[in-house]
Amino acid sequence: MSEEKKSLNFIEHIIEEDLRNGFSTDDLRFRFPPEPNGYLHIGHASSICLNFGLGLTYNAPVNLRFDDTNPEKEEQEYVDAIKRDVSWLGFEWNHECYASDYFPHLYEWAVELIKQGKAYVDSQSSEEIAAQKGTPTTPGKESPYRNRLIEDNLDLFERMKNGEFEAGDQVLRAKIDMTSSNMLMRDPIMYRIMHKYHHRTANNWCIYPMYDWTHGESDYLEQVSHSFCTLEFAMHRELYDWFLDQVYDSEKIRPKQREFARRNLSHTVVSKRKLLQLVKEGHVTAWDDPRMPTISGLRRRGYTPNSIRNFADTIGIAKRENLIDVSLLEFCVREDLNKIAPRVMGVLDPVKVVITNYPEDGEEWLDAENNPEDEVMTYRKVPFSRELYIEKEDFREEANRKFFRLKLGGEVRLKNAYIIKAESCVKDENGNVTEIHCTYDEDSRSGSGTEASMRKVKGTLHWVSVAHAQEAEIRIYDRLFADAAPDSHKDKNFLEFINPDSLQVVTGYVEPSLASAKVGERFQFQRIGYFCVDKDTTNDQLVFNKTVGLRDTWAKLESK
Q: Which ranges carry the Glutamyl/glutaminyl-tRNA synthetase class Ib catalytic domain (predicted)?
């Protein structure tokens, strides 16, 4: 970076120091290495934006590499979803790589380690191995198989590969140091037996490499210069370097692992295991349920790629974990949608307004601006008629002076239309208002230039013409968990904090321009919030998801 136009984070400082010490910018290469055992979530978005952002900053290639070493949990569905999410966020990868591509190479290297006396086959059970690991303050005990003859280890390892043993019968361990203060260095397992179908290698392998053996060597094979991981891998760095020491050629680039802190999001969980539990147990409909913190869930809810990238940029990269309030994410999408979302009118809890002095068969099409944020203002036509829907909460029979909406004897302006006055109302047998009878000032049409149109009234309401209204299913989403940190309570299950009101489904009415709205299109329902067209929409049924309200109302609820 020739110019530092903004302050650098500590990751960028690491790279800049390497460049100052003679590392060539031509040798910079980064990677994003997801494991395809679930859908990506908002936490992954920070890592995606970090690595691909560095690629853009330094004009360096970035690989998308799938660490697919556990066929028990990994599926092609997850691979496809990850690729879709990274592309949707606006990033392009240089090479699409898979750890499984390196299985032959990793196996050959493992054989070499056995020949050098640095790896051995252990025939103990997993329970026996765990018991010999020791504790952080007491050293581990060596396996009785640690000093097997090299020839025996080579024979056993080949037989493991050939499928002659059951899962758990044998493992291959690196021979490092059972007294190390870092327990990960106490003869870590390199290979385990798994008779499972792999989504890319089918049944070609009966043994699968462990993450620690695979990750650094994959970085090395791809000539990744800087390998950035989250903080839980800080203790793994020593092992990462030890494995690299065994294969490193000084003529090649040696990857450098460095760690940054996770950014946890309030009122949700980002553990893939817990997200999978939510899906499997039916607490949500799928991985892309709009209440989920997955990228696909956020996309379906109406979030934009730009809003998520801005969120990642705003929270930045740090060395200490922190809980980020979800309201910041909501602010980012609200700010972005305000610029790009067309304004429309929709009524979610309707009550009928009858304009008694408007012609019974009257109809006119009024001009309504699409988005006041646009540099060049554009307009659409909205129909107006004698009968309209407004929100129930916008009418009261009686109200104090601070109620600026419709009340008996009071006036309001209908957005883009006329000033109306409430004269009377009709109620059902339970006392609920079913119709509001109003009169309108026919000279007060917005934009007509008449003196009446200039008249100031306190309130402006949105509305929809009954005769032209499009019925729609409206899904109103709230936070999935009522607690800010639902998985931080040691004595409680995170499921206890699920918000029972995280989804409400109502039938509303929207203006006819939305009849042709396409899946994924985003709109601002005026005075309500931002909504997008859900994939469940059909030719016969419009379905909208509420993305976010116009204002942060949750903060007020929490303060109470």
A: 28-338
Q: In the Cβ-directed half-sphere of 164, how many Cα atoms lie within 13 Å?
A: 8
pLDDT category, 149, cuts 50, 70, 90?
very high
Residue 408: pLDDT band (50, 70, 90) is: very high
Q: Is the pLDDT of residue 248 over 90?
A: yes
CA distance readout (Å), 403 to 138, 398, 412, 490, 545: 71, 9, 11, 47, 29
Q: What is the pLDDT of residue 5?
A: 57
Domains of the chain, by residue range, sit at 103-210, 261-343+470-559, 346-462
Residue 455 has which token pair?
A: 């008249």
CATH 3.90.800.10 fits 103-210, yes or no: yes
What is the full DSSP assignment across 24-54? -GGG--EEE---SSS--BHHHHHHHHHHHHH
**For residue 394, how far is the Cα from the chain centroid?**
35
The residue type at 217: E
Selection from 240, 246, 402, 335 nearest residue 551 by Cα: 335
Percentage with pLDDT > 70 across the chain: 98
The residue whose two tokens read 């209440």 is 291
Do domains 103-210 and 346-462 share one topology? The answer is no
pLDDT at 489 over 90: yes
CB 234 within 8 A of CB 259: yes
In 3D space, the residue among 33, 377, 75 whose CA is nearest the CA of residue 198 turns out to be 75
Alpha-carbon gap, residue 27 to 206, rounded angstroms: 36
**Separation of alpha carbons 208 and 221, rounded Å:** 18
Q: How far apart are CA 247 and CA 255, in angstroms?
A: 12
The highest-level CATH class for domain 346-462 is mainly beta
DSSP letters for 46-105: HHHHHHHHHHHHTT--EEEEE----TTT--HHHHHHHHHHHHHTT---S-EEEGGGGHHH
The binding site consists of 35-37, 67, 211, 230, 270-272
Pairing of strands 256-260, 464-465: unpaired
Size of the chain, expressed as the number of residues it contains: 560
Distance CA 144, CA 265 (A): 46
Residues that are catalytic = 35, 262, 272
* ∠ Cα 93 99 103 (to 5°): 145
Three-class SS state of 476: strand
**Residues contacting residue 280 through CB under 8 Å, at least 6 positions apart:** none
Beta-carbon-side half-sphere exposure of residue 16 (alpha carbons within 13 Å): 12
User: Residues comprising the binding site for ATP?
Assistant: 35-37, 230, 270-272
Residue 19 structure tokens? 């460049």
**522-525/529-533 β-pairing:** antiparallel
Q: What is the token pair recorded at 260?
A: 């940054």
Given a contact cutoff of 8 angstroms between Cβ atoms, the answer to whether 414 and 388 are in contact is yes
Provide the annotated binding site for L-glutamine. 67, 211
The end-to-end CA distance of the chain, in Å, is 48
Coarse DSSP helix, strand, coil percentages of the chain, rounded to the nearest 5 percent: 30, 25, 45
Give the C-alpha separation, 539 to 463, whole Å.
24
